[in-house]
Amino acid sequence: MVEQNLRYRDDEPVGDPAVTVDAFADQSNATAVRIEPGDDARALLPHLDRIALVEVNFPAYTDGRGYSAARILREHGYAGELRAVGDVLLDQLSHMRRCGFDSFAPNQPISAEAADKAFATWPDVYQKTVDGRPAIWAKRHPA
Amino acid sequence: MYQYDQYDQAMVDARVAEFRDQVERRLAGDITEDQFKPLRLKNGLYLQLHAYMLRVAVPYGTLNSRQMRMLGDIADKYDRGYGHFTTRQNIQYNWIKLQDAPDILADLASVEMHAIQTSGNCIRNTTSDQFAGAAADELVDPRPYAELLRQWSTFHPEFDYLPRKFKIAIIGSETDRAAMKLHDIGIQLVKNDAGEIGCRFYVGGGMGRTPMIAPVIGDFISPLQMVSYAEACLRVYNRYGRRDNKYKARIKILVHEIGADEYRRQVEEEFAHILTLGLEPPAAELERIKGFFEQPGFDANASDELDLSDPDFALWVDQNVHAHKQPGYAIVNISLKPTGGIPGDATADQIRLMADLALEHSFDELRVTHAQNIVLPHVKKADLYAIWQKLDEAGLAAANLDLIGDIIACPGLDYCSLANARSIPVAQKISNRFADLGRQRELGELKLKISGCINACGHHHAGHIGILGVDRKGVENYQLLLGGCEGADTSLGTITGPGFNEDGIVDAVEKATDVYLAQRVDGERFVDTFRRIGMAPFKEAIYAKETANG
Asked: Which Pfam families does the entry link to (chain A) (predicted)?
């Protein structure tokens, strides 16, 4: 099992091994699932209430499909752990967090201090996403 | 012009700090060149053949004099005293040292500029009509919408690792001066019968090795849903664009392979979902931005009278000055294509002079055009002669706008690590061959575009005459294309046949123009004649055996 070194949740980590998206549909007791870049995250939407962990694999950091997968899950109400695994590098952490990831299992370890600095890169953000941060336009025009 | 508030400024300042940290980590050896590459590329820093090249964003091609002056100062301070304006309305510096790059970004940030997302597989600088806010034929000023897109696309967390780079252009006139249909997304602002503004989304155009003209995907999207629609277009692309082959990774391939109808269906499904999320900036934000683009304080009594007794001035006015929507005013095009020059290059002194002229005569505004020229958008006709004299003294008065001397060319193998052949010497030879302005004017509008490789940064597919440099067994070889065109009647050029060497391509261009002169009927441009008579007569002339006295 991959060593988990960055997690931003208060609940207990899920111990179950993550199964593939294909296998998940047939295993009614599975609570953890792993999304590969080519998988359609929407296939999980009917099952969100029984999932406690979604791992999104980044075989190469340059493949950005996982960012969309993460946002789609969060936009549809997924509240469990969303973990980026694989080729996850320091300079991608901030954007990943904005897309809904709340835990990270990088191939190369990243220190908690470095990660905190990365999350604080942008004083504000231009877009509303799923991380709850108000977009700059919302700050300019308070309701 | 748009001005940063504290939020915009904090974002570019944060970027400078982030990049300074990344460069320090690289210079200290904490990260490898492989890890650093995508980081520097997102700041427009390329490693070219001889040095680092820095590409600075000019959002929708719009600058004030302070920004333009800074571009000149950077050329002096960190480069070799010149810069290169590009087909994406940006500027590039060719001789940059890595350790200087953070300081350059800091200098840029001090005048509300940056190099954010000028490279990499992300949403690039949004381009627009260089005559925006000034053109007589304008329906809607596209700049506020372009600024909205700039903010939305800046550090967009979901679309930073797309299958490939992504270019958006937006226009608001009938006349397309931005090659809008040859972009990943081209947006045309239109009005319906009720006078309401809508965004027509063309998606999946592009040049490169597989040129395509974008089909209409969204016919009339509300401007208050423009960002959400763009978000939907991008999400479908990010999820389903090809990643197995970088040459098939642009959105045009996706749209082509699944078809415009299926792509539209997926976008609409995503769009319906996104509309429920409230991602769109409110109308008040668009209004706030529009406030920066109020028309300048024109002199209502400005005269349309113009003394054209100086024949050289008269020629320049005829060729380089465009109609303005305000009586008594004109749009000045400054050609960066002197005879034998490098297309798009300007010296630091020239850049500063243009800044001074903008401050004094054009309500502090300049534009960069995708044809690698500079525009002073709001000039009083009474000031034209004085401006022309100053431009002439500085070598900036070439009266060749849209003529064969107004060549678009990429940097080519003289600088670029992707290039297969040099573009600049070919441009210079053609420019010299057609140096006679009378001859250029006789040929009329003739857009000649040169790319030094198949990536088509020089837009060769869209040239009335296009030239593509290729590598043939280690020797530079140039293919000739005819009949390309941008704008409302966008078409893609066709290759004439076997390629030529450097001198041969210049001769071939000349032969093509001879065919046009012999065959044209009244009022036809080169491209019109080509469309009417077809390739055969051109091919025959270009590949005819030399005669004994030829």
From this structure: DUF934 (PF06073)
